[in-house]
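Lab notebook, bench 4. Still working through the backlog of constructs that have no structural model yet. Next entry is a single chain of 178 residues. Request: give me the C-alpha cells for it.
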Amino acid sequence: MPTPRQPWTAEDEATRDRILRAARERSATQIDLARAAGIGDAAGQVRMHRWSRGAAHLTAEQLAAIDAYLSGLPVGGLVLGGESELAELADFAGPPDLADDEELRVLARSHRRAAVGAIARLMVGARSENVRLRAAEVLLERSDGRPLARVVDETPRPPVVDTELIAILERMVVRDGV
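Model written out:
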C-alpha cells in the first residue's frame, strides 16, 4: 500500500476526479465510498476524506471496489440501458406528439424502481434537511396519494324556498321523462 507521503501523479488525480465525479452523479457520499472500499470505520472515513483532498492514497483494490460499487448505482436516479435507450429518450426532447405519449409513459414506467430508489437515497443521505423533507413528501405522495384539496364554495346565496324547489324538480321530471 502506498504511503500518504508519496507524491500524487497526474494519473492519481485523474482517477480521483473521475471517481468523485461519478459519485456526485450518483448521489454517493464519501461514507458510501469508504464502505465500498472496505474501510467503513471512522479511521477509514477519515482516510477517504483525505484521499478526496489529495492527502492520502488508496490501494488499487480499494479503487477497483469503489469503481464496481459506483457502476452498480443509477446515474441521476435513472438506470439507462445504454446508448440506444439514451437516443430513444433524446427523441422525446423535441416538440410533443400525441402519438408518442403512450410510448413515453411506457418508457417512464420502466424507470419507476430506479426513481423511487433515488428519492429514497435522497431522503436518507442528503445533506440538506429541505431535500430530505421534500424527498419524504414525494415518497408519501406516491405511496399514499396526494392529499385531496377540499373546495368549499362560500358564495352567499339566498335560501331556496319550497316553491322554487318544487319548480326545479318539476322541470327535471318533465325533461327526463320520469
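Notes after review: The two ends are 92 Å apart (CA to CA). The longest helix spans residues 10-25. Flag for follow-up if needed.
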